[in-house]
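Notebook B, p. 112. Complex prediction, attempt 2.
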Amino acid sequence: MARPIQEINAGSMADIAFLLLIFFLVTTTMDVDSGITRKLPPIQEKQKNDEKIKERNVYVVSINYHNQVAVEGELMPVNKICDGVKEFIKNPNNNPNLSEKKEKDIPLLGKMMVSKGVVSLQNDNGTSYSKYIEVQNELVRAFNELRDEFAMKQWGKKYKDLSKEQQDAVKKIYPMTISEAEPRNVGGK
Amino acid sequence: MARFKRKGKGGMPAISTASLPDIVFMLLFFFMVSTTMREVDLKIRVRLPEATEIKKLEKKSLVSYIYVGAPIKAYQAKLGTEPRLQLNDEISAVSDVVNYISAEREKMDEADIPYMTTSIKADMDVKMGIITDIKQELRKAQALKINYSTRKKM
């Protein structure tokens, strides 16, 4: 007659599992990293590129140490910047004060008029970071909206629903030309 | 009546806890899969600003972090209240950024180096002065892809 095998007491299994659970709760984080991606300009000995850009093709957005935003030297509320940038890049009436356009070969679409405009964001050392991010966000929003509008007109879809090739083509038409200006120290702390 | 009383001796029957370990293990696995290890102990306070047009950072191994903010209470006696930057676990000077970036680069696969991103996690109250200094250091270190870390605005 075989003796029944004695069972291992599993009563403390729950305690062990709880211990592990609490350990993982404490040592891990859940946050997903997200943010506004930017590319810094490489350091150059001579600023050749900057000289080539004409005055009319640069849309200067500056923030001073009172966190006031000015576009081309005139104060502007933050919520107007997005429309300002779109107007500047699109330049529907070929206004000589807004950005120039150049014909470019775009895969998938053929010859298209592409704006040569560049948005330059300047800030002061005393500008607060949150304001800076707010303005950066508005600038990115302007470009995203331009791309969405174009995608809607061309294919009837939103930009993010397009295929990879179509997205690349739209990116070529509306490149995200936001430049981080060289730092200037104008008053403030 | 007497029989009934005898049966109910010892109060309510105990709830079976046999499946409790299974439930807890399930929770454990959920947390193990959905979270990542905390890498640094922050000595400074970082409340990220909010933005709407954000992109997710995809590969965590390609990202190095720079934290900027005012020291938390426990360290204020030692470090003061002015915004400082933290690289890994240490409070550092702006000039350390170049070394930090090259150390991070050493750790990476050669193929991944062009995709290296530096994420700036700065408190919303810091001034742009320190951020601009960091950006200049990053340019010197040739780490040109940066990310201003933000929260999603609801």
